[in-house]
Amino acid sequence: MMEVYLDNNATTMVDPKVFEEMKPFFCDIYGNPNSLHRFGAGTHPKMVEALNFLYEGINAADEDDIIITANATESINTVIKGVWIDKILNGDKKHIITTEVEHPAVTAACRFLQSQGVAVTYLGVNAEGTIDAQQVKDCIKDETALVSVMWANNETGKIFPIKEIGQICRDAGVLFHTDATQAIGKIPVDVQDCNVDYLSFSAHKFHGPKGIGGLYVRKSCALTPLLHGGEQMGGLRAGTVDVASMVGMGWAMKLATSTMALAYEKNHISKLRDKLESAILELPDTIVIGGTENRTPNTTLISIRGVEGESMLWDLNQKGIGASTGSACASEDLEANPVMNAFGSDSELAHTGVRFSLSRFTTEEQIDYAIEVIKNAVTRLRGISSSYAYAPASHASGL
Q1: Bridge partners of residue 300, in order along the sequence
Q2: Are residues 104 and 217 in the same domain?
Q3: Are 252 and 207 in contact (CB under 8 A)?
Q4: pTM higher than the cut 0.85
Q5: Do 65 and 37 reside in the same domain of the chain?
Q6: For 12-29, how does the pLDDT look when each residue is reduced to its tens digit (9 = 90+)?
Q7: Domain at 245, CATH number
Q8: Whose CA is closest to 84, among 118, 107, 115?
Q9: CATH number of the domain residue 380 falls in
Q10: Would the pLDDT of 394 be above 70?
């Protein structure tokens, strides 16, 4: 039995080259970077190098800040709650704009702000699974403090019009945050070109270690820190930095955002994804959620009518294949997939989405094996379904 990991939007393996760069900081160069002695100072060269890799990876300017955090969730909460403190509690802004398909970290933070009296507008997605920049423009008002729109969706891979939204926010004098967790390492990400004020990311999504992330903050857009304590990160985020993980994140960024790596994603990984997708779509009553245009190269979310997503994952797991029904951060939630709901899918289809997400370590041999297993699983599960036999073939045309 072959093992095939197709859940890379949940997490990725650490690139062996990244792991090699991290090794010395566990047992050899282990000093606290804030200590004055040679053991602490010995960590500084590689930390500076890693930080430079992060700046280069997203094209941050020298005068901007990149704060090292524990993960993208912390980065997101730092932005949303920081803006709440600075612009809403201590100012006259009372409104935030986001979308219905954001990562749970954004949605939950916005729900918290709503409980504190903040008005939040949730933009719905269009038939292509994204939003129009004009939707943002139409919803901005004098009280708007922040717009938060993801760069790429974690379930469908759909890419949002970040450059256009950034320009709209800049022209309106509204702060703009984007969660780029699912974009970095898959498509080019440029904070200068897109007028981004805040950008959040997590290392384990682009073959770095778990437990570390970053927050880009444009100069003049400083925030009240989420964590207070020591003076680490220039007082912007208290807590001793995990040097090994910071070095790993820097090197993972360097490898993932190189011209060669991004070209490999675009030209090779997308072909493997398309091969898998096309084979599944040969089955009746299957559809790609959001369509096949304007996506990250590695992701597809497919609805297979008559097959519960959880049941499909069980069958795949028995054959050594890892996939997902959506966000890993909500994997224990048995409610219908919120992204499927946002598309207006019916109650049956809302439970049938299966996400396959590849990485640069996925091989064609693995895809061929996955295709065979998936087709056999669909045949078995539809064969024992109490409702699929009555579903009309016309369902294959769409949601």
Answers
A1: 356
A2: yes
A3: yes
A4: yes
A5: yes
A6: 999 999 999 999 999 999
A7: 3.40.640.10
A8: 118
A9: 3.90.1150.10
A10: no
